[in-house]
Amino acid sequence: MSTAILTGPPVAGSPLEGDLRALGFDIRTAQDPASAAELIAAAPAHERIAVVDPRFVGHRHTLRLALTDPRFPAAAVEGALTVQPAARAALDRAATRVPVGAGSAHLTDVLTGTLTDALERADIGLQRIEPGSLVAAVPLTPARREEAQEAVAAVDEEAVRLRSAVKSRDGFFTTHCISPYSRYLARWCARRGLTPNQVTTASLLTALIAAGCAATGTRGGFVAAGALLLLSFVLDCTDGQLARYSLQYSTMGAWLDATFDRAKEYAYYAGLALGAARGGGHDEVWALALGAMILQTCRHVVDFSFNEANHDAAANTSPTAALSDRLDSVGWTVWARRMIVLPIGERWALIAVLTACTTPRIVFSVLLIGCALAACYTTAGRVLRSLTRRARRTDRAARALADLADTGALAELIARPMRGRGRTGSFLAPVMAFLAAAVLLSAVIFEDDPASWLTVGLACCAALLTGAAVARPLKGVLDWLVPPFLRAAEYVTILVLAARSGAHGALPAAFGLVAAVAYHHYDAVYRIRGGSGAPPRWLVRAAGGSEGRILVVTVLAALLTPSDFPLALAVLAGALGLLVLVESIRFWVRAAKTGAPAVHDEGEPA
Question: Angle at which helices 219-246 and 344-357 pack, to 10 degrees?
Fold first, then answer.
């Protein structure tokens, strides 16, 4: 239940009360600031409180934006404000401190404005809503009121609401081929009471059915898989548009949307690999599938690390960024640059069409080439931005990068005596991380027999270099490269050891292990982005950290026969997957129950 307190001169015939009731508010009326303060204080602590001027003239969706968005602890538009339970104390104080008597008319005439200013000074995270083409006004004369009502009538509220349901920044395929239609599907879902989480789940199930069709290995199965994958993407766009259309943002919804996107794509890769095997192929298609998953995951790690490193950096300017802004002012370059990076819409469309028309081997080959070019383009641009920008990284950014590095107890032990030595902000950390990856990958790729104790020894050397990389705060201009280097070392080591073992089933088992580790890394990203912090240290230590897992896999390869290696990888994948999945679900369910801030991704999809 939510309560709306109307405070100000009443207006006969106003639709305001009907709009507020339609938005789920129980209405109370206050005659003056003192009675408004009493009503605010008397409302239950767990309720959302809105304070609205009865003279408000505007669209219902303007009120919806200002009063029902769960992402903000407090929000306001002209004539209306709301606070969630976390900000109630600030509203109570502001309401009781409004002066009354001579000389205070300018503060009490439009009380909502006075309270909004007070909440803004209290620094509680108040969000001032910009209505755009919608109307929000408190006219104080009949003439002004008539003008405001004419302005309301001149705007098609539903058209604005549909437009605002679509992301302001999206890929070419999504913007021009999906969103013009999926927004109406989102409205259809909203009018039937469906939630974004239900649509997200439907998208996941559709993608899993598509993966099952691909696993049949038949041409009909591949055609059906491609069509279902596109349908899954339509539903994936719809869930976010439904959330924006009806303002049904939630912590759980953001996590499900992000997690299911990865699960859908990687499950589809597995389905294609199974289909190739059923069609008479060999395990090398699993190697291509695992390579595609590794490349895509490493691309995401680059994105996340770069963004976290520069999330709140001071003096965050760069000639490269300025050039990018100038290119964005030329229409065709915007779409060209968005398509080059193969965002999720373009990537899934490519996969769907190639699945229907070609073979899994061709699908993965084209996908690897396209994603590799996209990775080179984006990473090179970010390196140039980092080298040319004079930004001061914060302690928060350094902690986020250290968490994304996902180093365990062994690296901590190695790093402990090195702390405080050397200069923070140099190129030492990325160089050490690069050397750790280079030493390890050179061994497993070029050794005659990578399943040897020599590889184990080199894995120990890589662990030493990893410890050196994370020994100091990651505040250097290129320190955001440390997590991607460590991820590439771990994932590619598992891939190469499985591929070179020659054992049947080793690559599918390696796919499962990398998928479990990748889930752990994505979960860390979503926790950090949601403001909840990284996974607990006990979980990171129990999972071994990147250097610990590498050491375990190399020891298993050296110790076991090729025929036993796949079973060991499968057991390791199952144990690790169960550990991180149970803890992740426990954390996110608890976060949803405790009212963690609702979030929603408004940026370009990955």
Answer: 160
